[in-house]
């Protein structure tokens, strides 16, 4: 469930370029206490971007990548595609001292100690949550990561525990995902499987969710499956698309 809608003041402490399309921004400020109290590994916040001459701020949702409790800092990774969008260009030009309001955090996924196998699936936008999940895995956990990027240069060194393996999947062009095929072609693990699958909505919600939930029978309690974004849509239009999809699913016959 989302955290209380209380705005927190953040300021940029430092930035670092991780890949040609990924920039990490470290934040400090009074929002740290809310982040430190998070209860889920996929903790996310809504960053509020104030546009000059526009009375309505723009909110964008991002997952917390890392938390530095000792120095009271936390990091968010931003996917950068030139001047496209609002948050990416902001992050590309962010400097220490820049300020930004934050709402949240929220979240809904935590690795289960009871699962026999953890299946983590996503594109660049899901890598922060996947990284956080890998750091939080219980002792002796086993699993696999299927991570999609558009270029080999965008592959990150993930904090893989012993017992995990990563499979990098290459997207063809801007919108031809290979994630579904990679997951369906892989041997299905034995035992109780917990799934985290997030990223582009058409891939996660239309292509992967039916396979994971219906064909493989993953129960809702062990399936965190949703879209972070959708090709050709702003976050505002994407929220409308998700509401429409939920209505469509509710009206669909069972069985």
Automatic annotation (TrEMBL):
Pfam families in UniProt: FAD_binding_9 (PF08021), SIP (PF04954)
InterPro entries per UniProt: FAD-bd_FR_type (IPR017927), FNR_nucleotide-bd (IPR039261), Riboflavin_synthase-like_b-brl (IPR017938), SIP_FAD-bd (IPR013113), SIP_fam (IPR039374), SIP_rossman_dom (IPR007037)
Domain FAD-binding FR-type residue range list: 5-112
Coiled coil: none
Name of protein: Siderophore-interacting protein
Source organism of the structure: Flexivirga alba
